[in-house]
Design goal:
55% of the residues lie in helices and 7% in strands. The radius of gyration is 31 Å and the shape is rod-shaped. By secondary structure, the protein is mainly alpha-helical.
């Protein structure tokens, strides 16, 4: 927050020099820190799983393209045998 110095100019107090949080706020922050850390770990793990899912979906699309290119998808060829019901 802006403060007036002895020479009449104003300046902002750096955050590290700002007043320390009151004991209740400090206790609360310390109490929730393990939970916030766990949330961050879970978010990172979720991001990794989402990347894994994206890679698997890409692989599936490639596999389907390979199958379609060869006409091997069930129900896409003129055979009397219905492989899709097998």
């Amino acid at each position: 927050r802006p403060q007036e110095s002895s020479n009449g100019t104003t300046h902002n107090t750096p955050p590290q020099l700002a007043q320390a949080p009151d004991p209740l706020t400090r206790a609360f922050n310390e109490a929730v820190k393990p939970y916030l850390d766990k949330i961050e770990r879970l978010q990172a793990e979720l991001d990794e799983r989402n990347l894994d899912i994206g890679q698997l979906e890409d692989e599936r699309a490639d596999m389907h393209a390979w199958i379609d290119k060869r006409g091997l998808r069930a129900g896409t060829f003129d055979s009397p045998i219905a492989f899709s019901s097998a």
